[in-house]
Fold this protein.
Amino acid sequence: MLQQERVMRVGILGGTFNPVHVGHLRLAIEAAERLNLDRVVLMPAHTPPHKDRADLLPFALRVELLQAAVEHSPILSVTELEAELPPPSYTWNSLAAWKSRRPDDLGVFILGAEDFANLNTWHRGLELPTLMDLAVMARADAGRALFRSTLARLWPDAEPPDTHDAVRMPGGTVCRFLVMPPLAISASLIRTNWLNGNDIRFLVPDPALSVLRENRRLVTARWQNHE
């Protein structure tokens, strides 16, 4: 009898990654360890519906930065899935496509508490828990109140959170709340430092920083187009 392959637990972390920074990577690793994930896939947005910005680096360059950043990680990887889907890059479409291609994996969509609170404004956002489990991350314990109020407001039929802040959603999936170690790093901070000529080492992984420097003229031109 053939041995059945073990179900892979895979976290999916989306974003523009403009650029990727150590905060993204640390969040992904923390999620993997706390949720016992086999790996975390970083999914850069190809055509974000909510960010029509002139300062967004080209998709191919953002992918290159991500691949350089996770090159030596045994648990982090990058997918270019959204480049294969019709624009705009709706999360619902991306997760549904990922699930259809990896039906045997157990997916966990990772998002921040503020995004979780605004899922009613996303394309089919309230249906995301029907696709896979959710992991809601916050940098401070105060995010727990937002998590619980959002559940009561958007999913009143969900079971009450247990002592581990896990909730059984109406569709049968599980939504978990996790407090992350505070790490006050943002892509906008990095872009500002870059444009001011400041050193961004240790904010961006060294391999990704090398890619930024190799594309300095393009990066600077794009990031100068901020709103």
Summary: Residues 9-223 form a domain with the Rossmann fold fold (CATH 3.40.50.620). The first strand starts at residue 9 and ends at 15. The chain has a mean pLDDT of 93.
